[in-house]
Structures are given as structure tokens and as C-alpha cells.
Specification:
Blueprint: H1 7-14, E1 47-52, E2 60-64, E3 75-81, H2 88-101, E4 104-108, H3 117-134, E5 137-147, H4 149-159, E6 166-170, E7 187-193, H5 199-209, E8 216-222, H6 231-248, H7 255-274, H8 278-292, H9 299-309, H10 312-341, H11 344-360, H12 363-389, H13 393-406, H14 411-423, H15 427-439, H16 445-450, H17 461-472
Parallel strand pairs: 3-4, 3-5, 5-6, 6-7, 7-8
Antiparallel strand pairs: 1-2, 2-4
Helix pairs in contact: 2-6, 7-8, 8-9, 10-12, 11-12, 11-13, 12-13, 13-14, 14-15, 15-17
């Protein structure tokens, strides 16, 4: 068994980015004028998975140009940073929004978890420079978007670069690099699943870290775990950037657009009020004021917000939330220690207890316990892969069993279990584990085809059947 790492070190190990302690401004450079006319003709209205950087052939990006794209007009752009450097994933997820709002999407295929900050800056510099030389980009409307470790990258780039109008951070907030003198003339939008292990971090960043700073900021939560938000949720981020641009430049203001969208918010508020959902009403009104401030009359929303702000029930909810955050952090620390000292039988019993509490607890406690399980899933994954790299067979098997116990529907847990079984020469059990991975959503056909762990069973009919299932899906 590996030596016990402290809770702090485990947090550092999975916080999904190798952070630099550099202070001061970064060297990231963006053009300060519209980069037009375009020098190249790219396909419009479709996802382009791989565009090679002209100055560095080892770097590339995925891209989507809206169907309306023309070289004689400058377009807003969102630069995207995925935690795993899979640019086509977020571009494919949000291409409909890019079409709806006439935005360009550009996602790095090189920036990923574990990349040193200095190298990430180089990747970002190349990404910005190459795209602005080849596309018609409105450099007054440059935004950065990231998920998990990619969100940390996006935030770090934004707070140190005056040419970036705003950051949209999903599933993480703390910037990948420290800066003692961060800028404040930008917007920040946090988006996080209410079952995400980084939920507390996201809430605190919005409520505490940005409090008192002249940064326009808001927070959106959705029902889900640590994952890219669905299109419906991400629509609010596109709306946020467009409203921010209107606020900054009155020539862009579209009264009909503002009215249409604030009515949509108004309907949500009325629905929450009708169902006596006081805290949901409170959050919706705050968001409405934040989104539409300076663009339309908001008196009716302030009239709802002001008494709610002083409402004792709201105050109690916020205090209870803080207490739950404290309890959640204590549970994470407790179970982090258990990863290094408890056997699989203990873990099965503990997870069974947590699942019983999820069924019996109130809503907020349910979400807390789900976040704890989501956290344990990530830490178990990290411990499994680290032990595997160190060729510590006993620790690998132990951590993988914990991984399967805390997150039984995670296809990665089943895939890793299959690799362990294949190494042990347990072919029958390997096929079972691979089928479980596919059953739970494993789709990476390239990975499994190129995984030498399965080289001895690749000609087996059972293995071919598994590949067929993946391809069919």
C-alpha cells in the first residue's frame, strides 16, 4: 500500500492542473484589432476536428464557423480548453449555440490536464495568433471557456490578459496560475453541476473570491456531476456574453432580444413563486438582475429581490449551506485517509451507508453525499492510474475495486478493471469487464484497438464482438 498522502496533497494531485506559482502578468498576447480579412476559406456550418497550427505543426485545434461567417465581417470568438485536450468534444456539443449566436468556436487539442503552465501559455499564444491570422475575429469580443482543468486555464488566461472580455468556467474556478495583481475589467460566469465534487469551490469563488471586486460575475448550477454542461445550460453562457457586449457597446443593444430573454427569466421566476420555491426564486431574481443590469428597467425584479434578501428563511438556508460545506470537507478528508488504510469490505459497507443516506436525507444533504461519492470516484481513479504507472499490482487492484464500489456505473472504472484482469491473464473476466464498460457508455474505439494490454485476446471472437458493439453505438 502506498504511503498515506495528506488530504491536501490528494487535492493537489487531482485538482487537474500542474500549477505554477508565478505571480505577475503572463506573456499571453492577443491582437488588439479585428483580425480581418480572413486569408483562408474554411468550411462553414460544420465541425472541423483538426486544424494544424501554421507556426507549430505539433499543435492543432478544432473549430466551428457559423453558416453566416463571411470574411468581410468580424465575429465574436470563444476559445475553449477541454481537460483532456479533446477539442472536438465541446465544439460538437455547442455548435448549435455558435450557429444561433453567430460565434466562432475554437478549441485547443493540446492544452490538457497536467501540462505545465508555461507550456500552456505557449499553446494559448499559438492558438490565438494562428486563428487571428486566418479568421475574421472581433478582438473586442474574445471569450475563454473551459471545463475542469481547462476552466483553470481559461480563468488564468482571462485575469492576466486585457484583451479577453470574459471567462466561462465549468466545473472548476481557481486559476491555473497565481497572480498578485489580477485585472478586474472582465466578466466571469461559473457553471457547475450540483453533484460535482468542485461545487463548493465554484460557489465560494462566486460568493467570496469575487466579492468586493469590480468584476461582473454570476453562477449557474445544473443537475449533474463533474461534466461539460448540456447545450440548454450553456445557452445561458452565450446569452451572458452577448448581454455583456451590449452593456459595453450601446450600438450592439437589441431591445427585442433583451425583452425576449428577460421574459423567459420572468416566466421562470413566476413558476418558482407559484410553487413556493423561495430559494429558487431568490437565485433566479439575483441572476436576472445580474444578467440584464443596465439593459432594461429592473424595478419589478428588485421589488422581489429586496424583501427576499432580508428574509429569515433565506438567511437560514444560506447558513445551513455553509454548515453542509464544512461537513462535506470533513467527509472528504475522512474518506481520503480511508483510501490509504481501509480494506474493500470496509469500503463496501461505507458506500452502502452513504447510499442509504442519499435515499433518506433531505435534498441538500442528498446532493452533499452525491458530491462526496463523485469526489471519491475521481480520487480512486487517480490512485488506480498512479499505482498502475508504478506497476504496483496490489495497490492497483485495491484502488480499482474501491473505484468500482464508489462509482459502479463509471465505464472508465470497468475499463481499468479489464486491463488489470487482462494483465493477470483472466480472459473470461476481462471480456465481462469490457462488456460492462461498453454497457455503461465506453465509446473510445481507438483506445481499445490500440491498447496493447489486450493484444493476446484481440483475435478472440468475444473481443471482436465488443468492438462491434462500440462501433454500432
Amino acid at each position: 500500500m502506498q504511503k498515506y498522502f495528506s488530504y491536501f496533497l490528494i487535492l493537489c494531485s487531482f485538482f487537474i492542473f500542474s500549477c505554477s506559482s508565478n505571480s505577475g502578468k503572463t506573456n499571453t498576447v492577443l491582437e488588439t484589432k479585428d483580425s480581418m480579412p480572413a486569408k483562408e476559406n474554411f468550411a462553414k456550418g460544420q465541425v472541423i476536428e483538426n486544424i494544424t497550427n501554421l507556426s507549430n505543426a505539433s499543435q492543432s485545434y478544432a473549430m466551428y464557423l457559423p453558416s453566416s461567417y463571411a470574411s468581410d465581417k468580424a465575429y465574436p470568438v470563444i476559445y475553449i480548453f477541454d481537460a483532456h485536450g479533446t477539442g472536438k468534444l465541446p465544439v460538437s456539443m455547442y455548435k448549435n449555440l455558435a450557429e444561433k449566436y453567430s460565434y466562432i468556436l475554437i478549441a485547443s487539442n493540446n492544452s490538457k490536464n497536467g501540462t505545465p503552465w508555461e507550456q500552456t501559455q505557449i499553446i494559448a499564444n499559438n492558438l490565438f495568433s494562428d486563428s487571428q491570422q486566418r479568421l475574421s475575429i472581433n478582438t473586442a469580443r474574445i471569450y475563454v471557456l473551459g471545463f475542469s482543468g481547462g476552466a483553470r486555464v481559461a480563468n488564468a488566461l482571462c485575469i492576466t490578459n486585457g484583451a479577453i472580455a470574459g471567462a466561462i468556467c465549468c466545473g472548476a474556478a481557481s486559476p491555473a496560475a497565481n497572480n498578485k495583481d489580477p485585472r478586474s475589467n472582465y466578466t466571469f460566469l461559473g457553471i457547475c453541476g450540483n453533484e460535482d465534487f468542485n461545487y463548493i469551490e465554484m460557489r465560494k469563488y462566486d460568493m467570496v473570491d469575487l466579492s468586493g471586486r469590480p468584476v461582473k460575475h454570476a453562477f449557474i448550477e445544473f443537475d449533474g456531476k463533474h461534466e461539460w454542461p448540456k447545450e440548454e445550460t450553456m445557452n445561458e453562457a452565450f446569452l451572458w456574453t452577448k448581454l455583456g457586449a451590449m452593456r459595453k457597446d450601446s450600438k450592439l443593444k437589441n431591445e427585442a432580444f433583451v425583452k425576449e430573454n428577460i421574459l423567459r427569466y420572468s416566466d421562470k421566476i413566476k413558476s418558482a413563486q407559484a410553487n413556493n420555491k423561495i430559494f429558487e426564486t431568490y437565485n433566479l431574481v439575483r441572476r436576472t438582475i445580474n444578467f440584464f443590469d443596465g439593459l432594461t428597467e429592473l424595478k419589478e425584479y428588485y421589488d422581489i429581490y429586496k424583501p427576499l434578501k432580508e428574509n429569515a428563511e433565506i438567511d437560514n438556508i444560506l447558513k445551513n449551506e455553509e454548515e453542509l460545506w464544512k461537513k462535506e470537507e470533513e467527509l472528504k478528508a475522512y474518506y481520503s485517509e480511508g483510501l490509504q488504510s481501509k480494506n474493500i469490505d470496509w469500503w463496501k459497507q461505507e458506500v452502502n451507508t452513504i447510499n442509504k443516506k442519499i435515499k433518506a436525507a433531505n435534498t441538500e444533504q442528498v446532493l452533499m453525499y452525491k458530491r462526496v461519492l463523485d469526489y471519491l470516484s475521481l480520487v480512486a481513479y487517480m490512485q488506480t492510474t498512479n499505482a498502475m504507472k508504478q506497476q504496483n499490482v496490489q495497490a492497483t487492484k485495491m484502488f480499482c475495486q474501491i473505484y468500482l464500489t464508489v462509482d459502479p456505473t463509471n465505464n472508465e472504472a470497468h475499463y481499468l478493471n479489464a486491463t488489470i484482469l487482462a494483465i493477470e491473464g483472466k480472459d473470461k473476466e476481462t471480456f465481462v469487464a469490457l462488456n460492462e464498460a461498453v454497457k455503461n457508455g465506453f465509446k473510445d474505439i481507438t483506445r481499445i484497438e490500440n491498447d496493447n494490454t489486450f493484444i493476446k485476446i484481440k483475435e478472440a471472437e468475444e473481443f471482436k464482438d465488443i468492438l462491434k458493439k462500440i462501433k454500432d453505438n
